[in-house]
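As noted in the main text, all predictions were made from sequence alone. Below is one such record, for Calcium-binding mitochondrial carrier protein.
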Amino acid sequence: MADRLDADPVAHALAGGIGGALSMAVTYPLVTLSTLAQTKSSKTQDNSNDDGANEKKGKVSTLNAAKYLWKNEGFKGFYSGLESAIFGISLNNLVYYYFYESITKTLLTSKASRSNGGSRGLSSFESIITGAIAGSITCISCNPIWVANTRMTVKNGDSGKNSNTLQTIIQIIQNDGIGTLFAGVLPALILVLNPIIQYTIFEQLKNFINKRRGGKGITSLHAFFIGALGKLLATGSTYPYITLKSRMHLKNDGEGNKEKTIIGLIKQIYSKEGLQGFYNGLNVKLSQSVLTAAFLFFFKEELTQVSIKLLRLIKSRKGSLKV
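Prediction:
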């Protein structure tokens, strides 16, 4: 824990940003499939018999989504929007980990000063408060990137045209207004529950393992598995909200659905697709989220020490130059 108290939050932010980019690159095809499953109720069905002339209505399966992408776009279709996703997850993690670790460091320093050494980690309540604050700041500041990413992932396949994040954001502002960049913020804020659950589980398991190891901390392998478990429970419990957020990022999802209020969208999805509509793509989303989180925590654990040493080197160089 001494390392955590001494480390600059910037080091954690850099490690989280780079780790997020690496984990997203590894698992992105699953991101594409889950996004299509959440936003399309029929387009990705296997229509090989009628060449798409008469699309069948029904729930989307991962296999049909994969067939649709391969048939219409080939291998590159699985990576539509990758550039914005990597930029988004890097920025997302930079912001999140900076505030998360800053607040954590403040809490632990305060506890240490009050009890001559203090607690070895955050309590469950402290983890919840820390995650809520960091998650809310991250959610609002990064929402435009995820709106652009959802549009790129879904619509690049429809039009056959590729655009970058900046072009997509400009198009959204020109066509729909700047407020559209914050579409889905309310369900996204509700989804702050996701990292709260995830990081509370992670912190408590981390504290448990740390005690069992006599205060030696956790290894990258420990981080991989407890990060995966935390994300599994968090995503499984908040998935309907993830679907709502994805649908709200679209101006029109291709199925004639234009409803943008949460209550209206819930009614619309339920009337057209039933309860299943809220869970389209759940299996692939769980696989993607769990793997992405596992690799993120693994990479971050490895990269944090590198980032700490790098920042110390930069500061020492600056100090020597001043002298």
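The chain has one domain: 2-322. The two ends are 33 Å apart (CA to CA). These features were considered when defining construct boundaries for the mutagenesis experiments described in Section 2.9.
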